[in-house]
Amino acid sequence: MFLREIKPGPCLSTFVRLYRIIDFEFPHTAPIPPKAYTPRPEQCIQFFPTPTQFDYPDSGVKNIIPKNAFLIGQHTVINKRTVFQKFLSVQVVFQPGALFHLLGIPLNELTNQLIEAEDIMGSDIERVNDELYHAHSHLQMILIIEQFLSAKFNQIKIHRRPIDHVFEHMLLHPGQGTIDWYANHACICQRQFDRKFKAYVGISPKAYYRIIRFDQAYRMKNYAPHQSWFNIAISCGYQDYQHLSKDYQDFTGYTPVAFFAMDAPERLLGSEEVY
């Protein structure tokens, strides 16, 4: 099993937060449970050299299998992903706002959506996915992705504005400012800040902050499963456990305890659910 989050090279760090390589091979006899994929503060392109099935249980959307890669907008709902015996995926998690600059379309059009990347970004997607499948190492996969993205970003002119720095600060230092504070540091009024935030990220600043805090709690519990839910809630800026529980039920449909008890594919391989 290989699961790693890798930082981009210096030339792409303005646009890319990280690369996430997921490379699993399961025993033949083991039934593989679907992975309940929680909302997280991410806008991505994800390549699938091997098949993966997506289901959205609450909306009734089932059995979506990518052709090569998906553009994944900001999610506020859970989806379930079913993998097969061999699972290989390379995910590019963009800095907030970078995917908006790359695609040139408002990201609220991608909220809670999976879009075939080839339909928007062209036939290069199929070539990259094929190169990833035949790559000899995970390092080579990263080099393939970086060459592709460097060429794409070099074709466009991006003028970073104060709001871009606000996005990153909000993600890296959650809870250190109010929405008014962020709007002031973006040098725009709150109404305009809300409008631009939805276009650049896909959802409102308030909703984005809720997902940042929820994701922080989700990951903390997975990394430290013996830590109490109360301590996790307080550590992540919740008023109490009930406040955390409400977010869990809003974003997953389950209580924290019930969701944590669900099976996950990586647990079959002796690992905690850390992505």
Write up what this structure looks like:
This protein has 275 residues and is α+β, with helices and mostly antiparallel strands. The chain folds into 3 domains: 2-154, Jelly Rolls (Sandwich), CATH 2.60.120; 162-203; 206-269, Arc Repressor Mutant, subunit A (Orthogonal Bundle). Helix content is 40%, strand content 19%. It has 11 helices and 10 strands. It has helices at residues 98-103, 117-121, 124-134, 138-154, 162-172, 179-185, 190-200, 205-223, 229-235, 241-252, 256-260, and strands spanning 2-6, 16-25, 35-37, 44-47, 52-56, 61-64, 69-72, 79-83, 86-94, 114-116. The strands form 2 sheets. Strands 1-2-9-4-7-10 form a 6-stranded antiparallel β-sheet. α6 (179-185) crosses α7 (190-200) and α8 crosses α10. The protein starts with a strand and ends in a 15-residue tail after the last helix.
Tally of structural domains: 3
SSE order, one letter for each helix or strand:
EEEEEEEEEHEHHHHHHHHHH
Q: Decide which structural class fits the backbone.
A: alpha+beta
The number of helical runs is 11
Q: Within the CATH hierarchy, at the fold level, what is the topology of the largest domain?
A: Jelly Rolls
| Major sheet: arrangement of strands | 1-2-9-4-7-10
The CATH C-level name of the largest domain is Mainly Beta
- The percentage helix is 40-55%
* Uncertain stretches of 5 or more adjacent residues: none
Reported CATH architecture of the largest domain: Sandwich
Global morphology: globular
Radius of gyration: 19 Å
